[in-house]
Predict the 3D structure of the following.
Amino acid sequence: MKLNKLLASVLVIILAAGGAVGCSSKSDAADPSAETSSAAEAAPAASNEEAADKKTEPKETTLSLLIDGDVSRAGFDAVAALAKEKLGITVEVEIRPGGADGDNVVKTRLASGDMADLCAYNSGSLLAALNPSEYFIDISKEDWASRLDDTFVSAVAINGATYGIPMASAQAGAILYSKSMYKELGLTVPKTWDEFIANCDAIKAAGKTAILGTFADSWTAQVLYLGDHYNVAAKDPNFAKDFEAGKTKYASSEAGLNSWKRLAATSAYYNKDSLATTYDDGCDIMANGEAGHWAMLTQSLSNIYELYGDKVNDIGVFGIPGDDPNNQGLTVWMPTAIYGNKNSDKTEDILRFMEFYISDEALNAYAGAVLPDGPYCVKGYELPDTAYDAVKNDMQAYFDAGKTVTALEFQTPVKGPNCPAISQECAAGLTSAEEAAAAYDADCLKQAVQLGLDWK
Amino acid sequence: MDNKKMYSGWFLVPALTIFTLFFIVPMVVSLFFSMTVWNFTDFKFVGLDNFKMFFTEKSLNISIKNTLIYAVLTCGLKVVLGILIAVFLTSAIKTKNILRSIVFFPNLVSTIAVGITFSALMHPSKGLFNKVLENIGVPAIDWLGNIQIALFSVVGTDVWKGVGVATVIYIAGIQSIDKTFYEAASIDGANSWKQFLNITLPLCRPAMNSVIILAFIGGMRTFDLIWAMTGGGPGFATDVVASIVYKQYAAGFYGLSTAGNVVMFILIAVFAFPLQRYLLSKEVN
């Protein structure tokens, strides 16, 4: 029995220690698919030296890019193909997961010095959390950076340094609706929140899904709340500033709490299996007109277009309605940005590629492959005539009328990381609007502490 | 005399170096960093603020309750089901080799694969489980979407996957029991229930203790199955300490994340060590 005791003690020690140590190493390992880069990077380094001899020719080189698998890449691929032809730069794409898993992969690879040459990642508050001055090339001194749209620059600039170029067009967090279902039931596009709910009631009464929930990908649950920021800003123009300063909170401000109330009010209208439906399922369902509304980023239009072609024009868009019928606006998202790895040995090639990526030539190639989900973030480059109806007709009207505002995450670095889960609970009717608002405030407090802001 | 002690002491050096370098040092370092707000370039000492936040905020402290429920349930079910299956599989049945393989098989499949498979089986409208229920006239159950049920659905999957290991340990324990005990008992007129109660159960106590400890600690630090099936959702209903730690790291709250690891270590220590002492004291010599 003595051996047994000894064995058991050793086991307990190993397991317990593994519990503490093993867990941190688990997050370090993050994702096996992210390991492939080192092999890919070793090869082009050799070919680089050969190419250095003939200086007149454009250098043949390979850049690696780490990107979220959910992002539509058709436009990017078209530009990359052109870059190979014109610049001799081949881009090797590495896929990473989205959401929290993706954040972990990006943060771990940055911290361990294993980042790809190019990194596609969110602009706005999520970028701020990456400590970009440490890892990314500052492009503010480059001539071509002046081509970038000012609003976009503000979403990728931290302490005066600019880090990213727009990977795609800007987009909106809005309500996508099925035009054919609206026609069938004789509905009109709502101007206020109450009209929107009335439409939902009508669709529900017809035995159809009034609002599509795709909460298996929990990030999708927050779009309705985040997209309501136009209405928040309309009521309280200083909300973003006061929120960052810790002076106003969602739970205590009327404008902020309203967003959560709207999200809570939708809980009666979702599809029954909303918690098991994914974003990809959602694209299918909307393309086939099986749901009335979907609160979603308009990037899904490109996903639908890639899968279903012209069926995308059966989908219309309206900004999340507020209380004032004369002031319905659109909350705009700055696109995913591409950042250059400062610690790569190919920074010159990276800058060449970035400059090329926002040239008219590249944008034409981009627009030739996939249509924009909103305006481009490059000065002087217009939307092509062939854009999706939803963008050309519905969204452009908001831009023309100046009724747009960027989402809160592009105005302040404070964004609670549990926003998806809190929104998911609230939309599923598990928590009340007040509880969700208070939970989100508490969540943001953690971000404020990490950023060193003085919140009470 | 002293020389002799020194001589034998040197044998400890390699093991001690490795243990210090890879266990003691990281533990002390993480204890320190759990009391700071840090990123990869600098840190600020904040005392016990991280722990205070961990224990007071609902989205964080729900994980402690969930972890304990999860560990106790998976452990208990594996202990009970494991011994029943083991007794069955050590009895005189013809197909026992095949059956033993079948019981052990789920353990060979990757946890992530099991998680994905079961979340498909538990899909509220398209999943096999609900289709079967529908056919026998039972209303569909939202296995992973209902916050009251979700954690138990994951517990069930964990037991399905892990009961094989418990069974194998039990089988080894039962087979090492001397057959003469059973002969003597049956001559004295003990029926098989009495034999199980008075011979099998006490004599496979060491095996049972290993199962309890392994299953309990495994349950306390579970992560992969939860992450594959629910991601901690809906909301925070199935978040355990390990998944919370992972999420805080993803969010860039490194101090809070380290504090979570320390909490998990303390939890395991507080429950596992006394449990082990108690179990060992009960062993029959």
Observations:
- Chain B touches chain A through 66 residues (CB under 8 Å).
- Residues 20 and 80 of chain B are 38 Å apart (CA to CA).
- The domain at 49-282 of chain B is CATH 1.10.3720.10 (MetI-like fold).
- The mean pLDDT of chain B is 90.
